[in-house]
Write a structure and sequence with these properties.
The chain is 52% helix and 3% strand. Helix 4 packs parallel to helix 10, helix 12 runs antiparallel to helix 13 and helix 13 packs across helix 14. Strands 1-2-4-3 form a 4-stranded antiparallel β-sheet. The radius of gyration is 24 Å and the shape is globular. The chain contains 17 helices and 4 strands. It is mostly helical and 374 residues long. A hairpin with a 2-residue loop joins strand 3 and strand 4. The protein folds into 3 domains: 127 residues, no CATH class; 75 residues, no CATH class; 133 residues, no CATH class. Bound molecules: iron/sulfur cluster. The site of iron/sulfur cluster has 13 residues, from helix 11, helix 15 and helix 16. Iron/sulfur cluster binds next to helix 11, helix 15 and helix 16.
């Protein structure tokens, strides 16, 4: 049903996957195939594709009229899996899903429906062209499709926008009305999810591919340096700013936190790289702990499309909400005067600890005071 170009545009499609598998059945065989000199262009293009994703640029569709073009996407995935960096994977998910959304917007309803059904097994009903829908009530006329609610829920909750909440949708016998544009968004969202959650055993890679992996890995460190928080380790709690430290201690000691504090703590912990499971564990001791609710809240905070989860509140916000103990005069740390955000505090203090620096007099020499807290 799909053309060769469409196979390249929709790497998640049954046709694209089948085609890739006829050339190289699994990653081990793909790796061997990529080691052959005549297949070098696939490796180069895949590397380019990952770099584009890392640079947050549009992915270029490579069409050389060769059936091997379909291997560029799985090779790009292989590179990202080999590097094993969650941020890079999330950049890849964003770039790939954006490209898919752009291509889908130019497709007919037939193709969009076909892709959703054949690729993900979704149940859809086409409502017909605009004229065919004139018998429907006016509020239902804008929707070309109905999708089974369980398929809708596979993706929609991740968008965190009211219009994607099931309660705000029109439904009919377990089917949710969606416009074509919305179905396209669901498809690209599902594709993004597959990238974010898929994991592969990476085989030994051929020399050129290994070189590309190493070069992207090196570039990655530089590109993410300014924004990537120091990785979370158990001892990282010693680098927590006073605000987070108090919330963390209270929560793990079984005290109920107010909603604002709970949000601030969860968003902070997720942002520094603590797993969702561990974050839920932090709230477990609270007397009002309800597992399903905590899971929902933590996932909700963390699952905005990768890399874009909710940001923990700034110092100013915490001060307004009476959650900054330094501002309230209940705690003190000199570093607080030089930061505007608890994450900034954490990154600086974790760095100091990694270098065994316990003399903090350098703040006043090197940093500009940003707040006056006493
Ligand atoms: S100044 Fe900022 S980092 Fe320090 S305790 Fe207050 S809110 Fe936290």
């Amino acid at each position: 049903m799909l053309t060769r170009i469409q196979m390249l545009q929709y790497p998640f499609s049954v046709e694209a996957r089948r085609k890739s598998q006829t050339i190289a059945r699994d990653f081990r065989r793909l790796s061997k195939f990529l080691g052959e000199s005549e297949n070098r262009y696939i490796v180069e293009e895949a590397g380019e594709r990952v770099v584009k994703a890392l640079d947050q640029q549009s992915i270029r569709l490579v069409n050389t009229n060769d059936e091997r073009d379909v291997l560029i996407y799985p090779t790009a995935r292989l590179i990202v899996e080999k590097i094993g960096n969650a941020r890079l994977r999330s950049y890849q998910a964003v770039a790939e899903s954006k490209a898919v959304q752009k291509y889908l917007s130019r497709e007919s309803s037939d193709i969009v429906q076909y892709l959703a059904e054949s690729s993900f097994g979704w149940k859809l009903e086409y409502q017909g062209k605009i004229l065919d829908r004139s018998d429907l009530s006016p509020i239902l006329q804008p929707f070309e499709f109905k999708i089974a609610f369980e398929n809708f829920l596979e993706v929609a909750p991740k968008f965190h926008v009211d219009k994607w909440k099931l309660v705000n949708r029109h439904m009919d016998k377990g089917m949710v009305y969606v416009a074509k544009r919305e179905l396209e968004r669901l498809i690209s969202g599902k594709f993004s999810d597959l990238i974010l959650t898929g994991s592969y055993e990476v085989p030994t890679l051929p020399t050129r591919l290994t070189e590309i992996v190493q070069s992207i890995d090196a570039e990655l460190a530089g590109k993410l340096k300014s924004t990537q928080p120091i990785e979370y380790k158990k001892e990282s709690t010693h680098a927590f700013p006073p605000c987070i430290s108090i919330m963390y201690k209270e929560s793990t000691a079984g005290k109920n936190l107010a909603h604002d504090a709970r949000f601030a703590l969860a968003a902070f912990l997720l942002r520094i790289g603590m797993s969702e499971q561990d974050v839920m564990g932090v709230f477990k001791a609270a007397p009002d702990y309800v597992r399903s609710l905590a899971e929902y809240q933590v996932r909700h905070i963390s699952s905005k499309s990768a890399g874009e989860g909710y940001n923990p509140p700034s110092c100013k916000k915490l001060q307004v909400n009476s959650l900054c103990p330094v501002y309230l005069g209940a705690a003190w740390d000199a570093l607080c005067e030089y930061v505007l955000h608890p994450l900034e505090f954490y990154n600086t203090r974790a760095w100091e600890q990694s270098k065994n620096i316990d003399d903090h007099s350098w703040y006043s020499r090197k940093k500009k005071r940003k707040q006056t807290l006493k």
